[in-house]
Design goal:
With about 425 residues, the chain is α+β, with helices and mostly antiparallel strands. It is about 30% helix and about 20% strand. It contains ten helices and 17 strands. It has an eight-stranded mixed beta sheet, sandwiched between helices. β10 and β11 form a beta hairpin. It is elongated and about 85 Å long. The N and C termini lie far apart (about 140 Å).
């Protein structure tokens, strides 16, 4: 019995000793405070740790896809080797990929602005480009394809340079030289033809020069001259011609060309009545202006002044344009082109010294360039005349040149000589007022 008690005491002693480390650990833990905490889900964390909880970054919002709200691209032929593309910015785009068609479109360049210059074009060849907008993430939008053929546009292959050909040529010139050539209409004729105002030079210029051609229907050689002058100045816009760089002369001045001031009459002359001079209502437009106007003649091919001054649509359109340019304070002078005679009108009997000085300069400049004679011996009437209306009625310096030797309509073989004689007249005038 004593033996069994001894065994029991030994077992109790061993059990006591085995529990001592657990109690000692628990005691140490209580004395040093608990080093771990448990949340309600049973997870534990160490308050002594300086490491932030692991949090994932929120995903960034992708940049919107670039889209075109206005797919407008303009081309400007800077020289015979350089072409400039300009376009309206695409929404959400930060840059643009430029592709060139070289037997298939290939990436050529990437630009951040909205212009691109091709410095290696060839005249007479068609060039194709694609402009592709790119957003901040590099995502691309739909491309715009552009096709342009740098070339000579005004090609007069026969005597009859028609209204429709002139209209098409004007639009093509604007497409190819958009930065410094704009075309608009200042009105329409009885038969619905537009009176086009072809403007070359800086569209934001604060000065202007006005050139008016072909008031008389059969004198459409003047329209040919005007169109050739326009293209000549545009083709050479950034180089010197005749001692003048067009881009310098037209930096602060814009030339307004009324290329065909009587398109209804021109069409009659070219299709039915070669010697027709009046408009479609049988009115001589150069006798219809409100300066010393007198009603004379009867409606017909020539000689009728109209029932009253300023009665014709063509007359009103030019008067309105002159008034508009004068209100802007920009109109410096007017050059009128007629045919025929190879003479220059530049007389002035008024007292305004400024008009006298400027008209005299224009007169002698034109005579020296063209070698035309003075019109002092010409016996025509000034009643209702556009030049007298501008000079005395509106107080605007101006001259009139009569081109060609043969009776209007001038012979086709004269066109080249008329251009050679007059190609610098308007640009020299513009340079004078620059």
């Amino acid at each position: 019995m004593l033996h069994h008690r001894g065994k029991t005491l030994a077992l109790l002693l061993c059990l006591f000793l085995s529990l001592q480390p657990i109690q000692a650990f628990a005691a140490t833990d209580e004395n040093n405070e608990q080093t771990t905490t448990t949340d309600e889900n049973g997870a534990t964390e160490d308050p002594g740790s300086t490491e932030e909880p692991n949090q994932q970054d929120e995903p960034s919002t992708p940049a919107p896809t670039p889209v075109w709200t206005n797919k407008t691209v303009h081309t400007t032929l800077y020289s015979k080797r350089k072409l400039i593309l300009s376009w309206t910015a695409a929404k959400n785009a930060v840059k643009y990929n430029i592709y060139f068609d070289n037997g298939g479109f290939v990436l050529w360049d990437t630009v951040e602005g909205t212009t691109f210059t091709d410095k290696d074009i060839a005249m007479g060849y068609t060039h194709r480009y694609k402009i592709q907008p790119v957003n901040a993430d590099g995502k691309t939008g739909k491309s715009i394809t552009v096709k342009v053929t740098p070339r000579t546009i005004v090609k007069v292959k026969s005597q009859k340079y028609s209204y429709s050909t002139m209209k098409d040529d004007c639009k093509e010139l604007e497409k190819l030289y958009f930065d410094y050539c704009r075309v608009s209409s200042i009105g329409a004729t009885l038969r619905g033809r537009n009176l086009y105002d072809v403007c070359i030079g800086n569209p934001k210029a604060n000065r202007s020069l006005l050139v008016i051609c072909t008031l008389h229907a059969r004198e459409y050689a003047c329209s040919v001259l005007a169109m050739r002058q326009i293209e000549y100045y545009l083709q050479n816009y950034n180089k010197k011609i005749g001692g003048v760089r067009p881009s310098d002369a037209l930096k602060n001045l814009q030339i307004h060309y009324i290329v065909m001031a009587n398109p209804d009459g021109v069409t009659i002359s070219q299709t039915h009545h070669p010697r027709w001079k009046a408009n479609a209502r049988g009115v001589d437009l150069n006798r219809n202006y409100p300066y010393h106007f007198k009603k004379k003649g009867r409606p017909g091919a020539e000689g009728f002044s109209g029932y009253k001054a300023g009665s014709e649509k063509e007359t009103k359109a030019i008067m309105n344009l002159v008034s508009s340019l004068k209100k802007k304070g920009s109109l410096k002078a007017v050059i009128n082109y007629h045919a025929m005679g190879q003479i220059v009108f530049g007389d002035y009997d008024g007292k305004d010294k400024k008009i006298k000085k400027e008209t005299t300069y224009l007169y002698w400049m034109a005579r020296n360039l063209t070698r035309y004679k003075s019109a002092a011996s010409y016996g025509g009437s000034g009643e209702g005349n556009l030049r007298e209306y501008l000079l005395y009625g509106q107080k605007i310096p101006n001259i009139t040149l009569e081109v060609g030797k043969t009776w209007a309509p001038c012979a086709y073989w004269e066109y080249a000589r008329i251009f050679r004689q007059n190609k610098m007249v308007v640009l020299k005038a513009a340079n004078y007022y620059r």
